[in-house]
Write a structure and sequence with these properties.
Blueprint lengths: L6 H9 L2 H4 L5 E3 L2 H10 L2 E6 L9 E5 L4 E5 L2 E5 L2 H11 L5 E5 L5 E2 L2 E12 L2 E11 L14 E4 H8 L2 H25 L5 E8 L5 E7 L4
Antiparallel strand pairs: 1-6, 2-3, 2-6, 3-4, 4-5, 7-8, 8-9, 8-11, 9-10, 11-12
Helix pairs in contact: 5-6
């Protein structure tokens, strides 16, 4: 069964398809100039390793009224100017290539962000849905990973805690339908994959975003 560690390659594959591309937050490879550009365009961004999982090495970076903040796990660092921010990120990051992703303000429960994991696996010639669940970040964190203290919720239950019942039903259907569109796009680009884990974010208005795709979902 083929596995593909690079988040960037999977993102590029989905960006090439017009249907799935509109669900992808603006994403680029990390560099000082790209970071400057992304912080001009977005209120905040996430910097994450191209390869890796479990939320390891992920940072949230925002431009404040005065200076910048960089948050990693529960630790927030403040920098007076851009060069200090870049130097700080260099010290905090693990030594591997990184992506910059447009920050999405996720809908929350009790003030803590929630995202959604959809797991699918290929059995014979068919792809089977294994799970549609939500992950609720632990207090003080902006990442939802279960291995970092996040709480697992039923997907339907979490959606109904945030949106009206009608909108919750519609959004779950949209996530499932989007997954069905993504599978053949990725399978054509990466023959031999046999399981996928899609991480979706929904903002307070209910817009769906594809945050990440894993070929070895935890």
């Amino acid at each position: 069964m083929r596995q593909l560690a690079s988040k960037w390659l999977k993102t590029k594959a989905l960006l090439r398809h017009p249907y799935t591309a509109v669900y992808i937050p603006e994403t680029c490879l990390y560099s000082e100039e790209q970071l400057r550009m992304m912080l001009r365009r977005h209120a905040f961004v996430f910097i994450k390793p191209v390869k890796g999982g479990g939320g390891n090495g992920v940072m949230r970076v925002a431009k404040e009224r005065k200076g910048y903040t960089c948050t990693r796990m529960e630790n927030a660092y403040r920098f007076d100017h851009f060069k200090a921010l870049v130097d700080g990120i260099s010290r905090l990051r693990i030594q591997r290539p990184y992506l910059i992703q447009q920050g999405i303000q996720l809908a929350s429960i009790q003030g803590r962000p929630v995202d959604y994991r959809v797991k699918v696996a290929k059995e014979g010639e068919k792809w089977i849905f294994r799970a549609v669940v939500a992950r609720h970040a632990r207090p003080g964190l902006v990442i939802t990973n279960l291995c970092k203290g996040g709480t697992l919720l039923k997907g339907r239950e979490a959606l109904r805690m945030i949106y009206s019942q009608r909108l919750a039903i519609r959004k779950r259907r949209e996530i499932v339908d989007l997954t069905r569109h993504c599978i053949p796009v990725l399978e054509r680009r990466f023959p031999g994959i046999g399981q996928l884990g899609f991480d979706y974010g929904l903002d307070p208005n209910g817009r769906v975003w594809i945050l990440e795709v894993n070929t070895r979902p935890q």
